[in-house]
Amino acid sequence: MKKKVEILAPAKNLYQGMAAINAGADAVYIGAPQFGARTNATNPVEDIAELVRYAHLFKAQVFVVLNTILYDNELETCEKLIHELYHIGVDALIIQDMAIMEMNIPPIVIHASTQANNRDPKHVKFLADAGMKRAVLARELNLDQIKDIANATDVELEFFVSGALCVSFSGNCYMSIAGGERSANRGSCAQNCRLPYNLIDGTGKTLIANSHLLSIKDLDLSDQLPNLIEAGITSFKIEGRLKDIVYVKNNVSYLRKKLDAFLENNERFEKASSGRTFFNFDAEMDRSFNRGYTDYFVNKRTQSIGSWDTPKSQGQVIGKVTAVKKNGYVIENSDKLNNGDGLYFINEAGEADGAQINTIENGIVIPNTFKPLAVGTMIYRNADAEFNKLVEREDSAIRKIGVSLFFTETAAGFELKAVDEDGHTSISTLEVAKELSKNSDGVVENIKKNLSKTGNTPFIVDHLEVELSASWFLPISKINEIRRIVLEDLIDVRVNAYQRKEYKIQKTEHPYPVEKLDFMYNVSNKMARTFYHRHGVTEIEKAFELQWDPGKARVMTTKYCVKYELGKCPRYQRDTMGEKVVEPLVLKHGENEYKLKFNCKPCEMEIWEKDADLVFDEEDY
Fold first, then answer.
1. CATH numbers and ranges of domains, the chain
2. Which pTM was predicted?
3. pLDDT exceeds cutoff 60 at 621
4. CA-to-CA separations, 253 to 23, 170, 223, 478, in angstroms, rounded
5. Helix or strand holding residue 530 (H, E)
6. pLDDT in tens, 269-294
7. Rounded CA gap, 18 and 20, in Å?
């Protein structure tokens, strides 16, 4: 039996979830009224129920994100919500907090969020043995590490392949709450990583001023899909529950075409849902929001991944400025540009800047606000007005399910049978007195023509047979009626025939991979503590949110490395790095200061608050 491979799309709301499915998504993930890691992307249960019905029509799945850490006073509310989500047909929950594994919940499938420490075979196997059916792997893993995890367990593996990257290991960033009251693990990240910082060395010298030193490029692994599948990934996840509909449709459709090309005539893998999408636009990743792209660490540490100029969208490369006129610019490839487009460039002060095109006259691009630019300045388009307008249209991506229609006669009239691509069947009969047509020419062709008109239904006729013993007269209205009835019934047949996978969590006692948990395991309630204690954990530190010591905390652990970005990595750049930088390196933004600690053995960087007393071990370098 072939293994199913899916594209998993973000859904900010019902409308965008349906648009993602129409664009070819095999599954969508969406936030509930509470407990999702994006507080600005919540949805009422009624909307999720409507999305579930629509998704199941195409045999696509709906996952609900309940991936914040929970406090004791929220446990009962969360449990009640899970029962509601199960009742409306949700396929799975994506969770971080192990308290949910202790609750009295219905037999709903559980996925481990990337915030659940899914970085190595031992932890992923533990979660699988505890009853979780899928693990969303850490973004920082490379292909070899993914293979090791896949070899250790047969749990489904999900991996991010496009969208924004958290610079920190997911679940282990505390900069936001340390700088105020907003907890990333509670869905309210303030995105401190996207702020500008000064980089100061151990002598007090400013090495880099006012640069976005923790901001990194966006992820694009679209060329790695075959490699990831061979490594064990079966779900390709798109980041972006706060992104607009153009971003969602563009990313989904681009990946859909890439994956379909791989799956065509493939003997081992197949698409995870039904139907096919017809596009009225050409998807390109760089035509929607992006900060430039990186393959991150999937092929190990090989390149710079920082996006230091700006945390905002860079967009699509257009070309260099070849001449500057009184009111505008002459730009290479300006024929790609349109009125209303947004431009991105680095201005003469070395700062990220932009302008909107007012008009293009005689090859001169005239912005709404003229800004002096040097000849040779590279121009990017970060808002494509015509493309956005096209993709926003509902008919830019239309999904249809293949159906075969068989029209025959009965003793009392006629019958239409519809059989869809998955074998579901619907039959409708038409009782009518049979009369021979006065004009026998074209009777069958006329019936076929009208039966083929599926209009706004989710079906497309791939095969059609009409068998009649004579040239019977049939009004067009009757043909349309029997077609409408059989297809409406087929929708209900498909939705009702959908079989959701279910699994009842059983309490287990197999040992957790470690016996002592520090604050980075985010244990914030009594039920999570019970879960870990039962699995052999002896010491559990409270979550950061419950015990933060101002000024002295470690606020981030990351695979990203400022030293590497500077060309000063003693592990990978020893021969070219020149003089070592004087430590500790400090990031400063306003009154906020952070010390950097480099752990070269695991190839990680830690960020600490300014009052932390750090010990630098030479063995780390």
1. 3-165+218-273+281-287 (3.20.20.70), 175-216+531-621 (no CATH), 315-392 (2.40.10.170), 397-497 (no CATH)
2. 0.95
3. no
4. 5, 27, 14, 38
5. helix 526-534
6. 999 999 999 999 999 999 989 999 99
7. 5
